[in-house]
Amino acid sequence: MAKAKQIYICNNCAAEYSQWFGLCKECNEFGTISEEPVEIAAGGGGYSRGGWQSGTRSNHKISGTAKPRVSLKFSEINNDVQERFPSGYGEFDRVLGGGIVPGSLVLIGGDPGIGKSTLLLQVANKLSYSLPRILYVSAEESGQQVKLRASRLDVADIKTAAANGKQNGKSAHKKDNNLYVMPETDLEEILRELESLKPQVAVIDSIQTLHFAALTSSPGSVAQVRECTSALMQVGKRENITLLIVGHVTKEGAIAGPRVLEHLVDTVLYFEGDRYASHRLLRSVKNRFGATHEIGIFEMAEGGLVEVDNPSELFLGNRDEASPGTSIVVACEGTRPLVVEIQALVSPTSYTSPRRSTTGIDYNRLQQILAVLEKRVGVPLSKLDAYVASVGGLGVGEPAADLGVAIAIVASFRDRVVDPRTVLIGEVGLGGQVRLVSQMELRLKEAAKLGFKKAIVPKGQSLPDDIGLEIIPISKVIDAIIAAIPSERSGDFPVVAEE
């Protein structure tokens, strides 16, 4: 007979302990360790989370012919490429790595009100016209609420069906487009529906509101989220159902619930953006079937989310009216180059210590660039406030934008205008040197396509032939300042008027 044993598991990093601790020694998080009952064999077998261990040991060699039971060699594994199917949105397919993989689990997180449910309802609607069965599980809204939102988005041709029904003098009905809606929070009911309907794609909105009756904890707790995701994963893999799961985020911006939740799924996407702005970014942070850090860009319009055809135009300011303290960089998000305008403002401080503020730029990176400019170039910035922002609020985290940030700061300090037809690409080192960056050819082609005429790049960078740009190679930050910033308010490009 099996006997009960208690172990303690960290819900953040899955570390195991024999007794309870307030602080996890592996991930240094407080309050993440919880008790979990397990069973061990009465015959002395040891506990193993992966399965049962025999209680006897033997030092003798195993006799008999060795042969595999279920394991395979690489030559015996089927190497057929699993075909993807399109979602109906090119930006969504780009982030997933080229389309939806059948039987995969995709976790989508984002701030409240950012548009997660809108995006997935639109995707489900598109898929319902090409696939036999699509299930939308609404655990937060009733069926009437989902239908009202679908009517606003013109999903499932509700408006068209209503108009036709009115003209014919009949009651309006929703056009049959293979999209099924299920308002339910009980996990067992949802699993039964998945096994009965066998949809090709199922949307779970959201995982934090599902409830498994076998557990005594409330919905949204660590145990509920973990067990509900595990049960959905087993059914999805067995029935080859693609699951698109919505997840809430914490105030720090991470997906709420245990960290093991992100390990269970195949893909983790974050839907980002300012809820008061129109554009939204769908970013991949984990993808077992494609590249990470890919982004898809949408715009929130009256009829829902629409794809942005030319995202670089979204993050460029008005180039017809140049202003001091701006520069243009080419950032790469995954395999997509984006031309972004960097704005800087340097002004005398009114406080004992100067203020540093960033929007879209890493704060520590700004501090490093300011120190390099003061130490290696001689720009006195230690007594001045410095504000740096990227147009559109796009998060530019890669070091290739360092040179553009440095030039924008110096241009604001000297009240000069950088040529708006010039792009700056390079990483700034602590010695004041400009280091090489990756994907230079991709960046330059994007700049040339948008009509830029000049590019300031690190010296020694391998460059393509006939790119259509005037290339200025530099090795130090001071060389880039001389090449990009005019010594006087003159030149053949727009400048601000004299005061």
Portion of residues within helices: 10-25%
The number of strands is 23
Mean pLDDT: 83
Structural class: alpha/beta
Overall CATH architecture of the largest domain: 3-Layer(aba) Sandwich
CATH overall fold name of the largest domain: Rossmann fold
Radius of gyration: 28 Å
Biggest sheet strand order reads 8-7-9-10-6-11-12-13-14
Parts with pLDDT < 50 across at least 5 consecutive residues: 44-58, 159-163, 165-175, 490-499
**Shape verdict:** globular
Quick overview of this protein structure:
The chain is an alpha/beta fold and 499 residues long. It has helices at 90-96, 116-128, 143-152, 158-167, 187-197, 222-239, 260-264, 311-314, 363-377, 402-414, 440-449, 477-484, and strands at residues 3-10, 16-17, 33-40, 47-48, 51-52, 105-110, 134-138, 179-183, 201-205, 242-247, 267-272, 279-287, 295-301, 304-307, 326-333, 336-348, 356-359, 384-390, 422-424, 427-428, 434-435, 454-458, 470-474. It folds into three domains: 1-43, no CATH class; 90-309, 3-Layer(aba) Sandwich (Rossmann fold); 313-484, 2-Layer Sandwich (Ribosomal Protein S5, domain 2), CATH 3.30.230.10.
